[in-house]
Write a structure and sequence with these properties.
The protein is of the alpha/beta class and about 450 residues long. It is about 25% helix and about 15% strand. It has eleven helices and 16 strands. An eight-stranded parallel sheet has the order 7-6-5-4-3-2-1-8. It has a six-stranded antiparallel sheet with strand order 9-10-11-16-13-14. Strands 12-15 form a two-stranded antiparallel sheet. The structure holds 2-acetamido-2-deoxy-beta-D-glucopyranose (6 copies).
Amino acid sequence: MGILRVLSTSALVIGVAQALVTKDGKTGRLPAMGFNSWNAFKCDISEEVFLTAAEEIVSLGLKDAGYEYVNIDDCWADLDLWRDNSTGRIVPDYKKFPDGINGTAAKVHEMGLKMGIYSDAGEKTCAGYPGSLYHEEIDAATFSDWGIDYLKYDNCYVPDNWTDTYYWVIDTYTRVYEAPYSDAPADWDWSATNTAERYYRMRDALAKVDRVINYGLCDWGQALVETWGNATGQSWRLTGDIGPYWNMLMPIVSFTSYKLEYGNFFGHNDMDMLEVGNGNLTEAETRAHFGLWAAMKSPLLIGTPLDLIGEIDLTVLKNWEFIQFNQDPVFGESVRRFKWGNGQDRGWKNETMPAEYYAGPSVRGIHVFILNVLDTTQLKSFDFSEVPGLDPKKKYKVHDMWTHKDLPGTYSKKFSIKVESHDLAGLLFTEVKKGKRSLFDGWF
Ligand SMILES: *[C@@H]1O[C@H](CO)[C@@H](O)[C@H](O)[C@H]1NC(C)=O
Ligand SMILES: *[C@@H]1O[C@H](CO)[C@@H](O)[C@H](O)[C@H]1NC(C)=O
Ligand SMILES: *[C@@H]1O[C@H](CO)[C@@H](O)[C@H](O)[C@H]1NC(C)=O
Ligand SMILES: *[C@@H]1O[C@H](CO)[C@@H](O)[C@H](O)[C@H]1NC(C)=O
Ligand SMILES: *[C@@H]1O[C@H](CO)[C@@H](O)[C@H](O)[C@H]1NC(C)=O
Ligand SMILES: *[C@@H]1O[C@H](CO)[C@@H](O)[C@H](O)[C@H]1NC(C)=O
C-alpha cells in the first residue's frame, strides 16, 4: 500500500506541476532546511560565521537530520565599491569574505552543504547595500557563477514608480492590524501588480542560468503574495520579521493558520527564520515554535550561533519526527485548523490567541498538534469525529512525537491530554488493525 500510494501521488504531482517545478525536479519540492545569519548576526557577518555554521551543522548531526543550506543574509557586499563599473557585478566585501563569496561557497560545498545569498527587489537592500532591481540578469548570473543554491529576495527601497495601485500590508512586526489593511476591490488581481512584477523579473533571470537556485520571496505578505507566490518561487514570506519573543511568534501562527491551503509541494508559506536558541523563549515555547513551523510546512532555517547552542535547543531542532512531518515525501499539504480552543474562531487579527488545534496526514498516520496559548497548564480534548482522517469507530495507538514513546493502551472516540503553558503537543495516531491474528491463535 505504501509503495502504490507513493507512485500514484507523485505521478499526480508531476502531472499538474510542470511549469513551476524547479529545473532538477526536486529542489524546493519540500520546505528548505538550513541556517541563515540574520536573526543572530544581523550585519555583523564574515566568512567565519558561515564556515562555523557549516562545520557545526555537520558535527552536531544537523546535516544528517536534513539541514543543508548555509544562507548569507544582508550586508555581504562592499558599500563603497558597490558594482564593478565594467562588468556591472556586485562587489563582495573582501574584508568580510577574503576569498570572495565564491570562495566561501566552495568551502561550504566541500562539506556537502549548499550556499545561499540575499538580495532585494529594489534599488538597495534593507541595510542599504546594492539591490537587484534592473540588475536581475547580471545578478542571477553572478550568483550562479559563485555557486549559490538559494536566494532570499527582500523588498526594500522600491522606487516610487513601482508602487502598486492598491496596498495590501501585513505587518506583524509593529503588529498593525487595523482595518483596512487593503484598499483594493475584492476581486483585484494581485498577480498583475508591480510588486509581483518585481519578483517575476528575478524568477525569469534565475530561469536563464544553468544552476538550480531555490527562490525564496520575502515581500512580507504584501500584494497578497500567496496568490502568485507559487507561480514565482519555492516559498514566500507572509508576514513582517520574526522576533525571539512569544508575542512575536503568535501573530505569525495566527496569520499563517488562515493561509495554510496555499502551501504544497514546490510552494511553501514561509513563517520566517527560526528563533530557537535566541531571546528568552522557554523550553515549552521553543517546542511550540519549532513544532508549529514544522507542522505548517514552513522552511526550517536555524537563526542562532550553532557553536553556542544548548542541549535543549539542539534536541528540539533535531527532532526527527517533526522534521519527517515537515519533509513528508507524499503529503505536501500542511496541517489544517480543525478546532479553535478556548471558544469560537477569533480570526487572524487576534495576535496572541491563534487557534490551538491542528491536524494533518503523513506517511506514518494522522498527526494532531495542540497548542496551549494560555499562561497555565490546560487539559485539552477533542473528539475523533472532529479530525479529518480519524474514524470515531476505530481504535488507535497514540505516539508522542516529543518523547518518541507510545502512550499506554489504545484510544477511540475522544482524546485528552494536558498541555503546559505555551507548549505544543505533537501526537501520531495509527489505527490498531482488528482481526489480525497471530499464527498461533486458537492452536492451544
Ligand atoms: C504549486 O506549484 C506546484 C508545482 O507546480 C504544485 O505541485 C502545487 O500543487 C502548487 N501548489 C498549490 C497550492 O497549488
Ligand atoms: C564605480 O564607479 C563609481 C562612481 O564613479 C565609484 O564610486 C565606484 O567605486 C566604482 N566601482 C568600482 C568597483 O570601481
Ligand atoms: C572566485 O572568483 C575569483 C574571481 O573570478 C577567482 O579568481 C577565484 O579563483 C574564484 N575562487 C574559487 C574558489 O573558485
Ligand atoms: C519606473 O521607471 C524606470 C526608469 O524610468 C522604468 O525602467 C520602469 O519600467 C518604471 N517602472 C514601472 C513599473 O513603470
Ligand atoms: C520575554 O521577554 C518579553 C519581552 O521583553 C517579556 O514580555 C516576557 O515576559 C519575557 N518572557 C520570559 C519567559 O522571560
Ligand atoms: C483575542 O482573543 C482573546 C480571547 O478571546 C480576547 O480576550 C482578546 O481581546 C482578543 N484580542 C484581539 C486583539 O482581538
